[in-house]
Amino acid sequence: MKIILTHEVENLGQPGDVVEVKDGYGRNYLIPRGYATAWTKGAQRQIDQINEARRRRATENIESARESREALEASTMTITKTAGTNGRLFGAVTTQDVAEAASELAGKKIDRRQIHLNGTIKSVGEYTGSIKLAEEITANIKIEVVAAK
């Protein structure tokens, strides 16, 4: 039985994939739970259009990610936090703080889950980290933490 997956199914495929499964597995498990729909010529044309649009978006995203990477790596982000006299911060610099600073620098929204910091930032100084902008594009960033006056 040929089916089109509508959700990710472990050991079978991703949404939009056309796969061949045994009749009982498709009819009794995948289709009733909404994980798949039956394959038809019309549905295949629709899947081809969706995949083409997905490829075009991926190409545009990669180009914008490269531009953002260049902007992020070219400069140092400055984050201002309140600190004690010894340079220790009241709290810590979070990935959300870095995401806000990076969004301003890159000119597009960057999610905090894309950011990886090398250790926790709890004092004034210079630090490094990375931001995953696309599947294979990662920007290495420099962060400077200064005390608020």
Describe the structure.
With 149 residues, this protein is α+β, with helices and mostly antiparallel strands. It has helices spanning 23-30, 41-74, 95-106; strands at residues 2-5, 18-20, 36-38, 76-81, 88-93, 115-117, 121-123, 125-132, 138-147. The strands form 3 sheets. Strands 4-9-8-6 form a 4-stranded mixed sheet. A 3-stranded antiparallel sheet has the order 2-1-3, covered by helices on one side. The longest helix is centred in the middle third of the chain and has 34 residues, at 41-74. The chain is elongated and about 70 Å long. The model has no long low-confidence stretch (mean pLDDT 90). It holds the Pfam family Ribosomal_L9_N. InterPro entries: Ribosomal_bL9, Ribosomal_bL9/RNase_H1_N, Ribosomal_bL9_bac/chp, Ribosomal_bL9_C, Ribosomal_bL9_C_sf, Ribosomal_bL9_N, Ribosomal_bL9_N_sf. Binds to the 23S rRNA. One of its GO terms (cellular component) is ribosome. Residues 13-40 form the Ribosomal protein L9 domain.
Radius of gyration over alpha carbons?
23 Å
Structural class: alpha+beta
Poorly predicted ranges: none
Q: Report the β-strand fraction as a percent range.
A: 25-35%
Q: Look at the structure and give the mean pLDDT.
A: 90
Instruction: Give the strand tally.
Output: 9
How are helices and strands ordered from N to C? EEHEHEEHEEEE
Strand order of the largest sheet: 4-9-8-6
For the largest beta-sheet, the strand count, sense and barrel status come to:
4 strands, mixed
Helix content: 25-40%
Distance between the termini: 69 Å
| Oligomer classification | single chain
Tally of individual helices = 3
Give the overall shape, derived from the CA principal axes: elongated
Keywords: Ribonucleoprotein, Ribosomal protein, RNA-binding, rRNA-binding
Pfam families: Ribosomal_L9_C, Ribosomal_L9_N
Domain Ribosomal protein L9: 13-40
Function: Binds to the 23S rRNA.
